[in-house]
Amino acid sequence: MNKNRLHEVIFEADTPLGKLFDVVLLLAIVLSVGVVMLESVPEINAEYGEALRYAEYGFTALFTVEYVLRLIAVTIKSKYIFSFYGLVDLLSILPTFVEVLLPGVGSIRVVRILRLLRVFRVLKLVGFIKEASVLKTALWGARRKLMVFLVAVLVLVTILGTMVYLVEDAAAGFTSIPRSIYWAIVTVTTVGYGDIAPITVTGQTIASIIMLIGYAIIAVPTGIIGAEIITASNSNTQSCSNCNVDEHADGSKYCNQCGEEL
């Protein structure tokens, strides 16, 4: 199998072999995370600890082969190594190698911390679900609009929190402007802990306005992200073998970043 064919199978899901690779890897990820969870149950670990450990070694070997194959398949290897999924792939295999190669770190606490890092494997699931990829693209595309929205909300709760601080007193729990802003955030997000509440008519009126604003605010990011999802849904799973970018419009023949033929 040549390098281009290997890249097509490993990084894309447009071919039967690519889909089979993703399904097998998806199953392995789910099972490996299950092994980590079972190891944390004292009763199960006491009876099946050795079998679970061998299963862990097997999954680590499989993911190590996958990591090496991905390095072979890409042209600019640093693009993959330092990408989000590249770092997740490395984190998913590194703890087991550290435990085996450095037995001196056998402190129970250190080993537990290292084993917890294996749960990063669950993040690998995201890379094989097209819907998750669409959501990631939509969130990235909407980042500026969401940032403006969050800044506007921050300004709003600052103003409303300050207003409540002016009309309420410390007996109601509004002892400072930051604490009043905290109350405004809790109220505008419709969480409503109830740890502090206005007791004056003016304060309760402001609280009612904040609650109504909160319901309207919830719909804004939903609309922004929804519009971006519609746009992002027009992409496919083709990945560039040169720069490793994997978001291209349907029918694209060349990479939209480096110009490499897909």
Descriptive overview:
The protein is mainly alpha-helical. It folds into 2 domains: 3-128, Four Helix Bundle (Hemerythrin (Met), subunit A); 129-262, Helix Hairpins (Orthogonal Bundle), CATH 1.10.287.70. The protein has 11 helices and 2 strands; from the N terminus they run H-H-H-H-H-H-H-H-H-H-H-E-E. Strands 1-2 form a two-stranded antiparallel sheet. The chain is flat and about 75 Å long.
Summed up:
The longest helix is centred in the first third of the chain and has 32 residues, at 42-73.
Instruction: Please tell me the total number of domains.
Output: 2
Mean pLDDT: 80
Structural class: mainly alpha
Distance between the amino and carboxyl termini = 17 Å
Number of strands: 2
Order of strands, main sheet, comes to 1-2
Which CATH first-tier class of the largest domain would you pick?
Mainly Alpha
Number of helices: 11
CATH architecture designation of the largest domain: Orthogonal Bundle
Task: Give the amount of beta strand, in percent.
Answer: under 5%
Helix share, percent: 55-70%
What's the story with the biggest beta sheet? Answer: 2 strands, antiparallel
What is the overall silhouette? flat
Spans where pLDDT lies below 50 across 5 or more residues: 106-112
Spatial extent as radius of gyration: 25 Å
What's the CATH topology label of the largest domain? Helix Hairpins
Encode the helix/strand succession as letters. HHHHHHHHHHHEE
